Amino acid sequence: MMKRLFTIILAGLLLAACHNGQRAEQKRTQQEADSMMAAYHYSDSIYAVCGRIDTTAFNDFIVRATAFAEAHPQDTLAPSMLYRAGVGSMILAKSADRTGNVEARARNAKRALAIFNQFQEQYPDLDQARLCYWQRAIVYDDILGDWRSAESEYRDFINRYPNDSLTPVFQQYLTLLGKSEAELEQTLELGR
Prior knowledge:
By secondary structure, the protein is mainly α. The chain has a domain at 33-149. The chain is built from eight helices and no strands. It is globular, with a radius of gyration of 23 Å.
């Protein structure tokens, strides 16, 4: 009888210890997520308000966010972190494009494409998964100048989501892809 009571008490203590360990892990995960969101908001606010990009802060956020999503794929914040990491990579690629840093542009564009692919693989049912087509098309078109790949992304979206409110917009984009500024101006004037 005493042995059984001891076993029950020991099991209870182990269960309580495990539960406390889980709570501590959840708290650490939440603190990590809060810290990353603060880093993202800091980086994004400087970009939005000043038009300046803190590449170190954005890179830090992207590395931490992708690692977080990989380590905690089921966490409710993981998809948002991963998606924002992709957008951050796009911002860095676009910034590098403006400064003429071809290597940084290519590296960040490639990272953005990989993150959006990863997002669609991990979270195919989330609304942002459909927007990954658009984000990749922007990377190909606006950053890399790869109109064929951008066209492919737009067409994939249109075929997959024919009734989406963005489909007509993307169909219009397809008519503008690869045109020079003069051709775009002429197209826009004809449409008036």
